[in-house]
Amino acid sequence: MSDDLVENQHQLAAALNRARAGEDKELGQRVRDLGEQFVRLTNALVRLCKVHAPENDAFDEPTRQLVNALERLDTLIGQVSVVCVEGQVYVNDIRVRMDDRISGPQALEAELGRHGCGGLTFVKPIPDEQVRALTACISAAPAEEKPLHAFVQALRDCGVMEVNPQGRFRLRMSGEKTRTATELELHQTLERASGVVADAWESLSSNRVPNPLPVRRLVNELVDASATEDILGKEEEAIGGNTGSDEFARHSVRVTTFAVLIGRELGLPASALADLGVAAMYHDAGYAQRDEAGFAPPFSHHGTAGARALGRQRGFHQAKIKRMLVALEHHRDFDKKPSLYARIIRIADDFENYTRVRATGQLVSPAEALARMASAVGTAYDPVLFQLFVNTVGAFPPGTLLKLRDGRLVVVVSGVRSFESFARPMCRVLRNADRSMPENELVDLATTDAQVAEVMLHRR
Amino acid sequence: MSTPPAETEAPLSETEDVSLEAELHAEVSFGGTPRGQAANAVLQALSRAARSFLIYEPTNEAIRIFLDNLRKSANTFIDTYGELQLEIRPFELIHNGEVVYLDRDRERSLAFRLYRDGVRKLTLRPGLDWQELLKLLEVMSIRYVGVRQTEDDLVVLLWKAAFSHIAFEAVEGFVADAEDEGGVAQSSGTGAVVHISAPPDFDLPLPVRPRIAPVRYRVVPQAAIDELLAEDDTQGVAGLALHLAEELLAALADPQETLTFSDLASHLNETREFVFSEGHMAASLQLAYAAASADTRDPKSEAACLEFLQSFVSAHALRRFLHSVSQDASDAPHELYAMLKAIPGDHLKTLVEVLGTEQGEASRRVARRLIEMYVKDRGDEVVSYILNAPDHLACELLRVLRHSDLDRTLAAAKGLVHRGDHNVQLGVLTAIEAMPDGPEPVRILLQLGMSGAEDVRPKALAILAARRSADAFAPLLTKLKREASGRLSNSEAESIGQTLIAIDTNYALTAFREWCRPRGLLAGVLPGHARLQRAAVAGLAGVPGEEAEALIRAVSDKAGSELQEFCTQVMVRRRRILRGGRT
Predict the structure, then answer these.
(1) Are residues B339 and B361 in the same domain?
(2) Is the residue at B542 inside a domain?
(3) Got the DSSP string for A356-405?
(4) Residues 170-209, chain A: which have Cβ within 8 Å of B?
(5) Are residues B161 and B32 both part of a single domain?
(6) Which of chain A's residues have a Cβ under 8 Å away from the Cβ of B187?
(7) Nearest residue of A to residue B217 by CA position?
(8) Given an 8 Å threshold on Cβ–Cβ distance, is A267 in contact with B241?
(9) What is the DSSP letter of B188?
(10) Do B582 and B484 fall within a single domain?
(11) Is the pLDDT confidence value at A252 over 50?
């Protein structure tokens, strides 16, 4: 037996040890147990509805238990999403494993499926009478037309407002469709990001254990997209003008986008880019914390508050360590030796903070923000990382409002495409010289004679 | 909408009593065509190798056999047939329309594990190298062992692996059915009603940057990039974890900070576990020092801090460390010694407890070295532990003493010599062998020379012979005479004869003359006489001179066939010895 096999054996054992160190046995098991209870009790109550009225005493005990299970799930994981798909049930991404002799998942899937429903989202735990109403609605005959709409309406009519029925699901296969192939999907990913971040924040603020998995999957999509697409430009096009989305969530997504771009320019492998992206998503987690009076921590302490919140996730994982370091150090100057990811996110975060369109408008233009930040290279910012960032976003970073010499007002929608186009990005025309507003007209400053006359600021 | 599933299977039992042979025959061989059979061999090898960490200790040789089988079978298949494309069904794997793997046992089945985790197609392509196959095995092993990770599910693990010659088609998540009524279903990312926002002044005040500097495109030298990439090396995780812990502990000194030591306890414990299990002892020590100097303002935090420090030298932590040492490790790093000295607690007791349960030779060796440092100041306690310990632990502790304290080794040996366990007796023999001669060691050797264990007696006699211990002569002679007619075996008689000659040739010859040429009519036929003669002949084998030869011949002339044959052998051997040849 060769020595290299001994070495391989050690490698595998070490990898398993690391994996074991990163697991959270308790959380997974508790969610699984409670998920199983949910399925079993819901099925039992639906069956009871077929022989008794919901007010019948026979409902009392299983209803009480179901209310209790939902409350405990809420405490553990926050908003509870139950999804039935191909004979399996998932509770917030965690597959519920049930005894083969009990057709629990299939029965629940069949009952919900009659209404065209594939899952239920509990925004918050529901009381006894709403559990009875919910199970009665599931048990009732489905509408012949648009059964899912009718099911939703029936729930609302019964006063069940915190349960959102979902449509049917099917499993999506890799290779089925390239996720990043279309602008539409990237657009959807970016839009969805705000919701995912908002959910993560809600969970953190409720002192729940962080669950980075949904954020990680989202970031994986961004990382994949960044390999083939100008996500900076797409990001600007997708949500640049969307002032309706939560400012904080948008901040997180933009910082993530910038950080992933710096990481990619640096040459980090995809898995490291994903870790970096998740760290960027959570970098301001401290602000989700609340003291006894309900106040968020001040700027000076949001780093430690963030690290503390992220540290609630059990299990040792290098990605978690990096996230916590980022939360702690992302405002620390380069000369104080913060970690690599914190240095990357420091650049992304400061740039976003300078250029964000606030209620009062934009403080400085992206171009000016870069120039001001450039004055602190070597003290506040890592010179190499900053140059990589500059090489990515260009002299006029995406989102920069430009007035052209021909009188047109344009917004930059591309990052750097080549050395030559460093100061000549692709732009979308917002307003023509005659003040008319074209629809989706692009102008490439690298291939036209259009000249930049002035850098403008966004105003609300 | 995309909310991929994560794995949450319960961990399988940590150990199963499954023999290697049973394991090899448990799965059904499938595949009718030669190609199918070759595919079956790969899949069985993959399945067994992935399960092996569940069944065997990580260092067990069986695992290497499985790894070797996997490597060979995969190479054979790809070299012979090229691509191995598999369709995954719940209990079967299909290749080229042929069932090439079938196992309906959910706990064991490779097909079921893959299917359950959402993998629907798996392809091994030509060019696949061993490192890539190992990575696949790693992913599969993690799933088999049943680790539930909040950080990575199977899809993320596969994504991270970034295979070049292994392709997957896997379930990546849920999507709303295309025939959905639309407008009703909501993603989990948008369903929440209550949203928490940051304060309106978040991240303010902004850094003041009154000056501006030119922004230009510049090519970044590769060396500068490489330097940064090196910072993200996986090997540096321990350093990052330590850095984080130090930062958090330092933050406790801030009077405005609401963070307490208690808040950090679980994270610090995870870090300690990691650095210990990875064998980063310098980082462990640094972590302990950082914790020891942390500002613990309230009694609860102070207690948590003490508990944390003690956890560095708990039985659990020490086991983790010992399991991480390399096979050829001879000692623990100095950092561990430093921690044992600095952190309060009865670490000798803990180490003895740990030593009692360790199986690996290397880990026991290192544990013994650690216990050695307590011998000087707490030697009597060590002796007490030895005398009260079960046999295997007593042996280990005796090894500790014999390296550091001969007086106490003797005391412990005296207490152990009466134990019936032959390993204990061999341990005592080894301990005594290293001691200078004296009445006590001789007494112990004599006791062992009369031990009930057949492998102990000759060794004890050999030591006495080598030492020429005069005090042993008379007791041995008495034993020989007394037991010659009884339980003494031929080989023992020979050993005693050789020992007697070695201790005192003249006295021994006196006795031997009497036995070889007995006087009196009945002397030669008394019970046991033949065995005494055998002892004498064995002793005379190495004695030069004609007398010795004449004595042997005298025995031979009147002996029965067995003793006669022995005499002949001895004569031959003796001549060789005396000629300076080999025995």
Answers:
(1) no
(2) yes
(3) -EETTEESS-HHHHHHHHHTTBTTTB-HHHHHHHHHHH-SS-TT-EEEET
(4) 170-175, 192-196, 198-199, 201-202, 204-205, 209
(5) yes
(6) 192, 195
(7) A391
(8) no
(9) T
(10) yes
(11) yes
Higher-confidence residue of A392 and B297: namely A392
End-to-end CA distance of chain A: give it in Å, rounded: 71
If asked whether residues B369 and B326 sit together in one domain, one would say no
Contact across the interface for A164 and B191, Cβ inside 8 Å: yes
* CA A106-A112-A114 angle, 5° bins: 100
For B55-65, the pLDDT digits (tens) are 776 677 788 88
Please list every residue in chain A whose beta carbon sits closer than 8 Å to the beta carbon of residue B199.
287, 295-296
Q: Cβ of B218 and A387 within 8 Å?
A: yes
Cβ atoms B537, B492 nearer than 8 A: no
Read off the tokens for A44.
């039992």
The distance of B202 to chain A (nearest Cα, Å) reads 7
Cβ distance A199 to B189 less than 8 Å, yes or no, reads: yes
Q: Closest to B213 (Cβ–Cβ): which among A168, A321, A371?
A: A371
Do residue B490 and residue B509 come from a single domain? yes
Q: Which residues pair with B170 in a beta bridge?
A: B119
Contact across the interface for A168 and B179, Cβ inside 8 Å: yes
Residue A9 distance to chain B (closest CA, Å): 7
Confidence of residue B263 (pLDDT cuts 50, 70, 90): confident
Contacts of B191 in chain A (CB under 8 A): 79, 81, 121, 123, 164, 195
Q: What's the token pair of residue B266?
A: 């679980």
Print the domain residue range for B353: 346-432
Among B432, B448, B483, give the residue marking a domain's end. B432
A residues 34-73 lying closer than 8 A (beta carbon) to B = none
Return the minimum-mean-pLDDT range out of A78-82, A434-438, B20-24, B63-67.
B20-24
Residue B207 lies in a domain: no
Please indicate, yes or no, if residue B193 is contained in any of the structural domains: no
Residue B274 Cα, gap to closest chain A Cα (Å):
7
Within 10 angstroms of residue B219's Cβ, the number of other Cβ atoms is 8
Alpha-carbon span A206 to A78, nearest angstrom: 8
CA distances from B25 to A346, B54, B65, B343 (A): 58, 17, 15, 51
Residue range A350-368: average pLDDT?
A: 87
What is the nearest CA distance from A201 to chain B, expressed in angstroms? Answer: 6
What's the confidence (pLDDT) of residue B560?
Answer: 85
What tokens appear for A248 in the block?
């904080």
**Average pLDDT of chain A?**
83
Yes or no, beta carbons of B160 and A202 under 8 Å apart: no
Reduced to 3 states (helix: H, G, I; strand: E, B; else coil), residue A122 is strand
Structure confidence at residue A444 as a pLDDT band (50, 70, 90): very high
Domain count, chain B: 4
Residue B10 covered by a domain: no
Residues sharing a CB contact under 8 Å with residue B313, sequence separation 6 or more, in sequence order: B339, B340, B343, B345, B347, B350
**CA neighbours within 13 Å on the CB side: how many for B536?**
32
Q: Which of B322, B345, B368 is the last residue of a domain?
A: B345
Do B259 and A304 lie within an 8 Å CB cutoff? Answer: yes
CB contact under 8 A, A213 and B151: yes
Contact criterion met (CB below 8 Å) for B43 and B88: no
CATH of the domain at B387: 1.25.10
The residue with greater pLDDT, A258 or A6, is: A258
Give the number of other CB atoms < 10 A from CB of residue B307.
14
pLDDT digits (tens, 9 = 90+) for B115-141: 776 778 888 989 888 888 888 888 777
Burial tier of B179 (Cβ tally within 10 Å: 0-12, 13-18, 19+):
exposed
Residues B124 and B153 in one domain: yes
Angle, CA B22 vertex, CA B16 and CA B27 arms, to 5°:
100
User: Token pair for residue B329?
Assistant: 């490790």
Whether residues B417 and B498 fall in one domain: no
DSSP β-bridge partners for residue A119: A83, A166
Whether B421 and B531 map to the same domain: the answer is: no
